[in-house]
Amino acid sequence: MSEQPPTLDDEIAIYQREFHDLDPQVEKVVNALSRLDRRMNVAYGRQLATLGLRNAEWEVLKELVMVGDPYQLWPSTIAKRLGLTPAAMTHRVDRMEAEGLVTRERDPDNRVRVIIGLTREGRGKWLEVMRLATTFEEELLQDLDPGERATLGDLLTRLLRRVEAAQPDALGRLTDLD
User: Fold this and answer.
1) Distances in Å between the alpha carbon of 35 and those of 7, 23, 152?
2) 63 with 73: CB under 8 angstroms?
3) Tens digits of per-residue pLDDT, 125-162?
4) What whole-number distance in Å separates Cα of residue 152 and Cα of residue 154?
5) What's phi and psi for 70, nearest 5 deg?
6) What is the pLDDT of residues 25-51, one digit of tens each?
7) CA 11 – CA 130 distance, rounded (Å)
């Protein structure tokens, strides 16, 4: 018994041995994407940790930056976009507010609601993460020329569109990750 997991090609050969109706080309693409996703998530997680962030916090920072200046959203909007329960969202915001990454203020148009806003420190953390991620991503794609990068991007986008159309609720999670 080896402590090392099988290589991608070995895994597909095992699948073919055990399940004869398998299309090895399809399986290679899907398993390569899955393995790449896992390893990229680990790499991004390590980068976040060096900056004192968790993925949960990064997700909120990203949502706030995506809406643009003044970088504000209702917690319910962020929760919906991230597929979180209100309780999980509250937990994240509590942590992030204590760390100075976000603010929580009453909505001037509806005093019952609150608005989550990005602080200068939160935006600075977001920029630090982006700098690290950009370096990692450039290294990841260094063996592909610009044409190959464009083709790969187009192909992956087509796959993503198909999954999004078939699984429109896949943004949400089965359980909260906090």
Assistant:
1) 10, 18, 16
2) yes
3) 999 999 999 999 999 999 999 999 999 999 999 999 99
4) 5
5) -95, 20
6) 999 999 999 999 999 999 999 999 999
7) 34
Q: 0.85 cut: is pTM over it?
A: no
User: Do residues 86 and 124 lie in contact, with contact meaning Cβ atoms separated by under 8 Å?
Assistant: no
For 139, the token pair is: 């290294």
68 conformational bin, left if phi > 0, alpha if psi -120 to 50, beta if neither: left
- Which amino acid appears at position 62 of this protein? K
| Residue 49 token pair | 């940790």
- State how far the Cα of 154 lies from the Cα of 67, in Å rounded to an integer: 25
Strand partners, 105: 115
48, two tokens: 């976040």
Q: pLDDT tens for residues 86-109?
A: 899 999 999 999 999 999 999 888
Check residue 174 and give its pLDDT. Answer: 46
